[in-house]
Amino acid sequence: MAEHHDTTPAELGAPMDYAEHEKTYNLFLSLSKWGFVSCIALVVAMAFGFFAGGFFSALVLFFVICGAAWFLL
């Protein structure tokens, strides 16, 4: 059988699942942080690849920056 859920609006006092809210917010923060780090690493690696001239060296630099961020953050 289906579970019975309270269908009243939150404004009227419906119970809130704060643990799920915290979990979702922490996931959002984590994805935002790693998205920002990967974008910065990509831009730096692309600039390095353009000026130093090499796809492989830029790819290695991208992974080095992401790895360094993993340990530092």
TrEMBL record:
Residues 5-50 form the Cytochrome c oxidase subunit IV bacterial aa3 type domain. The chain crosses the membrane at residues 25-48, 54-72. Keywords: Membrane, Transmembrane, Transmembrane helix. The keyword Transcription regulation does not apply. Gene3D superfamilies: Bacterial aa3 type cytochrome c oxidase subunit IV. It comes from the Bacteria. The keyword Transmembrane applies. This is Aa3-type cytochrome c oxidase subunit IV. It comes from Phyllobacterium pellucidum. The lineage of its organism: Bacteria, Pseudomonadati, Pseudomonadota, Alphaproteobacteria, Hyphomicrobiales.
